[in-house]
Amino acid sequence: MRQSSLVVVANRLPVDDSVAPDGACEWRRSPGGLVSALHPLLQHTPATWVGWAGGTGPAPMLADVDGVRMHTVPLAGDDVRDHYEGFANATLWPLYHDAVEQPVYHRRWWEAYQRVNQRFAEAAAEAAEPGALVWVQDYHLQLVPALLRAARPDLRIGFFMHVPFPPPELFMQLPRRAELLLGMLGADLVGFQRPQAAHNFAQLATKVLGLTATDRRIAVDDRVVRIGAFPVSIDMTEMEALADRPDVVARAARIRRDLGDPQHVLLSVDRMDYTKGIEQRLKAYSELLATGHVKVRDTVMVQVAVPSRERVEQYQILRDRVEREVGRINGEFGRVGEPAIHYLTQPFDRAELVALYRAADIMAVTPLRDGMNLVAKEYVAARVDNGGALLLSEFAGAAAEFPEAFLVNPHDLEGLKLTLMHALQAIPADLTARMTAMREQLRVNDIRAWARSYLTALDQTGTLVRRLTTS
């Protein structure tokens, strides 16, 4: 097993689910998300990505992807059911997103979470060369930092929480709250999307574990664990280059023609998830159609909702509800050849997604709660024409960076409708000024700035940071 100076540990490998007979595979680039954030950074240093390939049974041997080694962690069927679908996504995910859905607790789920985290820690220890940086990602693997430190105290260990981290009154509900906190505190640096999340973590370290903590440092035995906010971003240069490609520009124009050349195209791109506010968005749009403030011929809505966690019951129920509502709206307000909502559930490649961004006059990103939301940033980066409007939830981490967006409380149906109408009716000069400001902010705070900020704090020598962020 070759070892690496940088090891990324995440629940999933960043590859597609279908591997060619020769073992070749490609980066799996979903809308937003971890892969889009880290992909540009891992091609300039000996790096290994430790993760699950998506199937059950023995771990497949995968070829390198863009020079990054793939180290597969095997999961059995009960691991997937109890760790991934259970504790990670039916216990932690809803709790960390303001308990939008009621979290569920089962003891066997916790046992599986421990078992799988141990397996990931062992894989990371095997992949890391002496003194390497190991960067553990997200809520699926909160126990890994402490397990890894016990096995490999020579490593520099970082942990980054991509989703929101809840206030003490919510986190305290967890039966295994102390173990989860101690797991994260095995890291040298614990990063969050927003300062409030770091504050919540420090409060819990004091309240649950009795540790001395500030919003920047927590004393653990003879160590100091640093904490802080490092808002994740995207590769703006890559997105702009893609948006400027002649085939993408032509495809965007074709999309508008296929939609009937409406005055306004309203776009949403989400995973099918109850945190994304899809139902609230559909209801607001339906009421605007009912009152005549929006007319089908003039305004077309395109809702991309990529299926997610389809074996989890809450997600099956959500998909059924969304599809019934889309059918009702189209049945009531659509015409032959003119649906009120174009509803798409298939994933898109990057070029098609950017063409959609360029075709959309308004991008509606209205989650009920979101750690950051990179789709909002991708839309801003893709608008090289300084056009378009971003309708953005106040409860997405991106809202703190984009005050020029049309900010909205997605729980407030009347406010959502009113803000959408403001975006539809805004004059071009206002839209240009807003988009220009957001694009300037994003250009300064792109993926490389995020990596430089986090890895500089983690890597005391600075050698790896320079290699990653200056190539």
Largest sheet: 8 strands, mixed
Distance between the ends: 26 Å
Alpha-carbon Rg, integer: 22 Å
Extract low-pLDDT stretches: 18-23, 29-33
Number of DSSP strands?
Answer: 14
Beta content comes to 15-25%
Number of helices: 17
Output the structural class: alpha/beta
Please give the share of residues in helix: 40-55%
| Strands side by side in the biggest sheet | 3-2-1-4-5-6-8-7
**What best-fitting shape do the alpha-carbon axes yield?**
globular
What is the overall pLDDT average? 91
What do you see in this structure?
- The protein is an alpha/beta fold and 471 residues long.
- The protein is 44% helix and 17% strand.
- The protein has helices at residues 33-38, 77-96, 107-127, 144-151, 168-171, 177-184, 195-209, 236-244, 246-258, 278-291, 313-333, 350-359, 374-382, 413-425, 428-444, 447-458, 463-470, and strands at residues 4-12, 47-52, 69-72, 128-137, 156-160, 189-192, 217-220, 223-229, 264-271, 299-306, 341-344, 362-365, 389-393, 406-408.
- It is globular and about 65 Å long.
Summary keywords:
six-stranded parallel sheet; 14 strands; 471 residues; 17 helices; globular; eight-stranded mixed sheet; 17% strand; alpha/beta
Show the helix and strand layout:
Blueprint: E1 4-12, H1 33-38, E2 47-52, E3 69-72, H2 77-96, H3 107-127, E4 128-137, H4 144-151, E5 156-160, H5 168-171, H6 177-184, E6 189-192, H7 195-209, E7 217-220, E8 223-229, H8 236-244, H9 246-258, E9 264-271, H10 278-291, E10 299-306, H11 313-333, E11 341-344, H12 350-359, E12 362-365, H13 374-382, E13 389-393, E14 406-408, H14 413-425, H15 428-444, H16 447-458, H17 463-470
Parallel strand pairs: 1-2, 1-4, 2-3, 4-5, 5-6, 6-8, 9-10, 9-12, 10-11, 12-13, 13-14
Antiparallel strand pairs: 7-8
Helix pairs in contact: 2-3, 3-4, 6-7, 9-12, 10-11, 10-14, 16-17
